[in-house]
Amino acid sequence: MKKLSPRVWLTLILVGMVGQFAWTIENMYFNVYLYNTISTDPGYISAMVGWSAAAATLTTLLMGALSDRVGKRKLFICGGYLLWGLSTAAFGLVTVKNAAKLFPAASAAAAAAVMIVVLDCVMTFFGSTANDAAFNAWITDTVPNAARGKAESVLAILPLISMLVIFGLFDGMTQRGQWQKFFAIFGGLVVLTGVVSVFLIPEPKLEPRRDNGLKTLVYGLRPSVVRGNPALYLSFAAFCLFSVAVQVFFPYLIIYMQNYLHFDGYALVLGVVLIIASVVSVLSGRVIDRLGELRCVLPAAGVMFAGLLGMFFARSMLAVILTGCIMMSGYMLVTAILSGVIRDHTPAGKAGHFQGIRMIFGVLLPMIFALFVAELYRRHENPLGNVCWELGGLVYIALPFALLATIPLRGACSAGSSYVPGDMLAIIFIVWANDVGAYLAGSLFGRHRLFERISPKKSWEGFAGGVLCAVAVGWLYGLYAGPGDTAHGLLWSGAGLVVAVAGVLGDLVESMLKRSAGLKDSGNSIPGHGGFLDRFDALILAVPFVYAYFAIFAYICVLSGGPVGAVAG
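Above: the chain sequence. Below: its structure as tokens.
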């Protein structure tokens, strides 16, 4: 068996351990902080879990593929940890009092809850970039198959150790209400790890890839790739089923013991459980390497099932400890085994990308399934409405902004693969130009109503003015960003036309949604502007169409040989 060097072991334990500190704070304490200090409405917790899951999945898919193309993991790990720590520390600043100062016209508790959800998504972006995408890809690149069981068993206990440390040494801070200090300590630790990682992490020898941006993102979703890697995708499916169970109960574990079992000493319970489960996981590493991962997966799943079944009946502290030890031991063994199998069957040079695919199966899909299961226990009068609102929010808001972040990935006709953030800014400026042009033309010349039933002020004249401004700004950016030829200007003029048409539809859709809800504005956080969503309604619907426009053009370019020099998407 090939042994890992002390430097690799130190990197695995230190970077992995601190990352788990941050994820433990996010998975278990953000919920408690929101519930105990801001709002007891479980809808906010569901929204935070759902949105962060979507953010984690999309970020890992995008940034994992980008790290494959760049061929450097350290940059993403170190930079991500720095920003991850800063955003974690910022949570202590989000209070009802501060929200009332920032948004005096809004409900302070609701504003604070929304700020928590948004900040959680920001923190998740940096954390998933650093840990889920880059660090996990680095592990796949660095750890040989023969040492996977031992390495994965150690990695599997890190979440448990992180919980043990936090519950045992720092939980008292949260119970005393010292949340700002609590978040600052762990945020600072993550920042420090980002600095240390610059000197600690050995960079694996990877060649930069020149893949097409769109093809890179969808590679793992192609039927041919699925058929060519059956063991990998069967492992993904098993990981998905396993994660459904975890998503249903794990975010509410502390709340369950605090508020339903009424355990004042829940930290002691979790401490004992985590110590025993960690010992079992470490001792099982050699056994997994010797017997093989596939032979061990069903017994491990059986152990976890037995623990979950026992937890249903357990009411006393001793019973919860015993069943918790069984459940957590099984949980860590299944996690280690499935993670090892996935790494074993990951295609070479695609470790970052398949970390994103892993997040789809391990986080996004289980989160969607968990929404339906969770409604069984919320006892709300309209569970279907809750599910539709939560899933609708992900599709309506999260997906367009995720697609916007992928547009700067250059397409198949580029001279070389690169990431051009100016493309993303260009889309935003084109949307603004469309809004300004529509407003000025509509105010000066508007006579004929565009869609009076939904928005009585919009006119065909305003629409024409928006089209002209959007096309003009697209033309100018095309000349500026490209080689300066007419073809590139026409390409971005077409993008401007797509933005103008889709943007006005987005504006009308948001007006329709407000009217159906009996609201004049989507919120009062921005007085006089119709609410926060009114600033992005055109962008939300325009981005998917622009993305499709560039994707189609890139595909045509591949088929024709690609006379245009650079294409977004």
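Strands lie at 449-451, 455-459.
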